[in-house]
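I hope you will forgive my troubling you with a question about protein structure. The matter concerns a single protein, recorded as an amino acid sequence and a row of backbone structure tokens. Please examine both parts with care and let me know of anything in them that strikes you as inconsistent. Thank you for your consideration; the sequence and its tokens are set out here:
***
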Amino acid sequence: MNFSLTPSLEQFVRDQAASGDYNNASEVVREALRLFKRVEEERAAKMAHLRAAIHEGDDAVARGDGVSIPSNETLDGFFDEL
């Protein structure tokens, strides 16, 4: 697999490899991809949780269990509690 990096990213990878924390540039890139994968997995889990909450809210409104939020301040307080 081949890929290109911008000059600044290439320098960053070289600097990280030269720091002694990694043996070579490939290790730096693998670590970066592992971190990116973790971030994406966490994002996907949050989105799934949000979709489930929206579905639950839609069901509650359909049952007549909705809550009226009369102002932006009340809405802000509601989201702060989430």
